[in-house]
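Progress against Task 2.4 (sequence-to-structure conversion) is shown through the following example record, which the project officer requested during the mid-term review.
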Amino acid sequence: MPAPEPERLDHFIARANAAYYATSDPFADFTTAPEICQGFGECLGLWAAVAWDQAGRPPRPILAEAGPGRGTLMADARRAIRAVAPDFAAALALHLIETSPRLRAAQASALGEGAAWHDALATLPPGPIFLLANEFLDALPIRQFVRRGAGWTERHVRGGRWEEHPAADPPATPAATPAAEGTVVECSEAATAFTAALARRIATQGGAALVIDYAAETPNPAGSLQALRAGAPADPLAAPGEADLTAHVDFPALAATASAAGAAAFGPIPQGRLLARLGLPARIDRLAAGLPAPRAAVLRAGARRLLAPERMGVLFKALALCHPASPPPPGFEPGYAPGYAP
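C-alpha cells generated for the chain above:
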C-alpha cells in the first residue's frame, strides 16, 4: 500500500476539525465562557444593542453569531436584549454561521424559531450586521513556517508525524523578521479572509462586530497548535477528527487586516477588562442576591473565572470592528481604568 502523501498543516486541520464537529460533542472536551456564566452572553447581547443604537438604529439590523456552539450565548444575549432593548429585539433578524448539522440541531433547540443558518458569512443577507464571535477564530486552520538557516520551511503532516518542506510562499512577516533557528511562525489565511470580508461589509453596509478568543501576549516560538480529547491535552497529529484542534489568534494582525479593509478596529483588550467595563460584576451581584447561597457561590465563581487575570481574564482577548464613522463601541472607550474582580 503506498504511503500517504504529506498534507499541509492547514489542510490537515480543516479536514480534522470538520470531522470532529460533525461527529462529536465538543462540549464534552471543553467549556466555553457562555457555558460558565450566563452573564457573558447577556453582556455581549447588550453590547450589540448599544452598538446598534450608536449606529443610528438602522432598520432591519442583522444580529449574527459565528460559531454559535450549543446556542447558549445567543439564547442569553437574546433574553437580555428583549428585557433591556425591546426596540432592537423587535427590529433584528437572527442569523447564525454554523456548518455542523449536529450543532445546528442543538442551536435550534436552544433558540426555537426565528433563526436562519449559513455555512459562511458571504450568504448572509445584505444590511447592517452586529456580529458576535466567541472562540470561533481559534478553530480555523493555520499554517506553520519554521526558520531553517537563512530560509523557511513549512510544516506538513504525514502518518501522524511532522514533515518540513521548503516554503514556496512564506508570509512577508517571517521573511523580514530575525528569528532563531527552529522558530515557528503561524498564520491563518482563513481568519484573515473572514476578518477582511467582515470588515469590508461593516465599512460599506454598517454595523459592528465583537470577536473574543484566546491569544498569548507574545507568540510562542514553538507554535500554539493544541488538541483536546476527552477533556485532556492530546497529540494534535494523532487520530484526526477525534480531538478539537485550536491555535492562538493573532489579534494585532487581524486588527491591521480590518483597518486595511476599511473598518475601524478597537483593541485587542483583555476579556476581563471588557467584561468589567460592560458591567458583568454588577450583573452577577444582582443575580446572586436573589439566589440561595450555594447557587450564588457557583454564579460568582463562574464570573471570577471569566474576569480574573490568572484565569480567562487575560488569556482571552477582545477585538471590536465598527464603521469608521462610529464612536468607540461599548467597553473600548478611552479613559477606563482596568478592572477585573466581580
